[in-house]
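Margin note from the TA: students keep mixing up input and output lines. Inputs are the sequences; the output is the structure of the whole complex. Example:
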Amino acid sequence: MNMQFLSLKRKEKTTLQKPHPLGLGLSCFILRSSSNFISIHGRIGQGREKGGKKAGTDFGTQALKRRGKRSFPSQITSLPSPNPYPPTGIGASTCTMPGYYDISDILMEDEAVSVVFHVGANGVGLLDPGTETNSVEKGAKIDLPFWLAHELCRRRAVSITIPSCFGQKMKKDVQADAACVDLGTRYPYFYEFGCKLFPLVGDKSIGPFLRHTFASRYKEMLSKSHTASLNAIPKFVLRLSKEEYQLFEAARSSMVEFKKWRVRDLGLMKATILGHKRKTDLH
Amino acid sequence: MAGQSDHSLSIFSAAEVEFIAEDEMIEIVPNIRMDALNLLCGDFGPFLPQIPCKVPLWLAVALKKRGKCSIRTPDWMSVEKLTQVLEAERESPREFQPLPFHYVEISRLLLDHAHDDIPEVYMVRSLIEDIRNVRFHKVESGLETISGRTYAVKLKNLSAMEVNLVRPFMVRVLQAFDKHDSPETVQQADASASKRPQVVDRGLRVSLSCVTC
């Protein structure tokens, strides 16, 4: 299911790139009205539904309603005024909200976290693969997607355990050499996830840890992204998380554009000029 | 382009920066006689042969392309001045030498269209390339010193094209650092009542002198 969504996202990227005077919100709406998107989203809705369709309890349906609201907006004709700050409860994260309709935000929330249930829940036995009856016991340890765990945590029905990407092993890795840690393949949403997770879990050291990781990785890798060569993708790009990759792309594309501008009008004259250029060129 | 997906960054493309640069005044020596041009941006006096006059750069290039004038190189584009600037750039690792705001674009336009009007054109071209390289390396090394504590970054005497080059990256980096920093400051405010973290070292202060002209 995720792969389909990702391939659609890539197709949509071309339409998203067109500068729209009314901004990203409206372009998201335009996407939504295309049938492709709705059908895929319908499938995603099903996927979510599987988790909580038979929810006798309140939690599942509430979470579903929010998810449902996101997929099928009731008004397509009028201009949306999307609330860029999704409703958060006690643990209001102070980091900048990426926006309710942001695709990478939606994808990021799909990450699985391991939670421990404080209360028993009836009718959601599908969440726990090891249960016989159609319910989850109190104290059971289950993997839930982050958006569900977030809502349940707000209502104090579960408590989230820190996933392995912020655990001790990771901290040791980062302290050894932050630039070598492979965030691109293992945890592409490392920073966003950490920002969202940080207010919900009692551990106060995640924030500084994220900052430290980012600062050291930035120093090693990102400050060199301007002069990264055009064709050969340097190795460290594969190790960047999504957010870092955007930074890298920004630098590189503006560099590429500048170089294109420089040689734009030279045309036939290029050969003679190249011969006289000094070797200390930017290439 | 880097900025399109996030329109709040309002990037200029290189061609747009060049367009803005073409408004600079430059001196030409026409070789035809022409009446005064009354344009929206100003009146450019009657052109008499061999009498120098000042016109905007776009007009100069247009006339030059039609063979109606010859362009006089601006003062800062002589070999001596450029060598001086280059030496000074190499000596001071953190400062940028004052150069005209649009020197990249002006020099490119002149070298492309009026290369026969510039004395020692290849020397000038290579000098300008070197200056640009040195300045860009300074910007890069300055970028490395941005840490979480930087609130603002100030780069004096940076030219329009160079600013445009680093702007998307710089803005996003500062945003990212801010995002990672703010939960921490809130958390520290919880822990130790009303004591903001003292910002000691701000690294390079860079004020993004955006091209808003």
